[in-house]
Design goal:
Length: 260
């Protein structure tokens, strides 16, 4: 190839490389509000967690760094709206907040109702919760199916807690008939509290799975995150992060739980 043509080829190749490569010129440090007491999704004492790692690596694809800010679940949207943080998770459009930019779904939660087997409570659907005392996670009526809100709004014995570890304790002490929370969060806290949930508790999978997202105050950050999330999924890294926390061989190692 003549030198002149070779130089043109190299020039075009470099331009193409610059266009296709992640751009770090606008890289930022992102303050992300995340919910307290959400292991294994968020482990505040370790500044890590299944969901946090997915968000962190998705943002890193465009050169952004992440600083998690742990707040009560009810403070996620207010923290973003006040400008205290640049983003918040886990959220979805069910929050009703329209001033931010919702990302593509990066995680799926599966909520359940849990009762004591000794109570012999039959719960086959959401309507069956009516009449029982219930302790749910904070803002559950905003994120679960509309029918759930309709059922519990007439229940004077319904409450929500930001500390989900307390839900299991309240159920065990029979201060409530049922608790409502994510299945993985429930299992984490049950194991951490030395509870043999398979023997003592009945799990009722009456809710649909819920897709959660990150909400950003800036549209460009949202685009960067979505690009990084797509990259994680295309390369297999997304599933590798999930497996590192949820695969049987890794579960107890990640959450620092010792089983006797």
């Amino acid at each position: 190839m003549p030198e002149k043509d070779f130089m043109k080829f190299i020039g075009k190749w470099l331009i193409g490389l610059l266009i296709s490569a992640p751009s770090f010129s606008q890289a930022k440090e992102i303050r992300l509000a995340v919910g307290l007491a959400l292991p294994p999704y968020y482990l505040s004492d370790q500044q890590s967690g299944l969901e946090l790692e997915i968000i962190k690596e998705s943002l890193a694809y465009k050169g952004h760094t992440l600083t998690p800010v742990f707040v009560p679940f009810a403070r996620l949207i207010p923290s973003l709206a006040s400008g205290f943080v640049d983003a918040a998770a886990p959220v979805n459009e069910g929050s009703g907040y329209l001033a931010g930019f919702y990302s593509n779904s990066h995680i799926r939660y599966k909520n359940i109702a849990v009762t004591l087997k000794s109570s012999n409570i039959e719960i086959a659907n959401i309507a069956d919760l009516a009449g029982f005392s219930i302790v749910a996670f904070q803002n559950a009526t905003s994120y679960l199916e509309p029918h759930y809100g309709e059922v519990v709004q007439r229940n004077s014995r319904y409450s929500e807690k930001s500390r989900q570890d307390l839900q299991i304790r309240m159920l065990l002490s029979k201060r409530t008939d049922a608790i409502v929370l994510d299945e993985k969060i429930f299992k984490y806290f049950a194991i951490n509290q030395g509870v043999n949930y398979e023997a003592e508790m009945a799990l009722h999978p009456i809710f649909n799975s819920v897709d959660y997202k990150v909400i950003f105050s800036d549209a460009k950050l949202n685009q960067d995150f979505n690009a990084g999330l797509d990259h994680l999924k295309e390369t297999g890294r997304y599933q590798a992060i999930i497996d590192s926390y949820l695969a049987p061989d890794n579960w107890f190692k990640k959450v620092n739980v010792t089983i006797n």
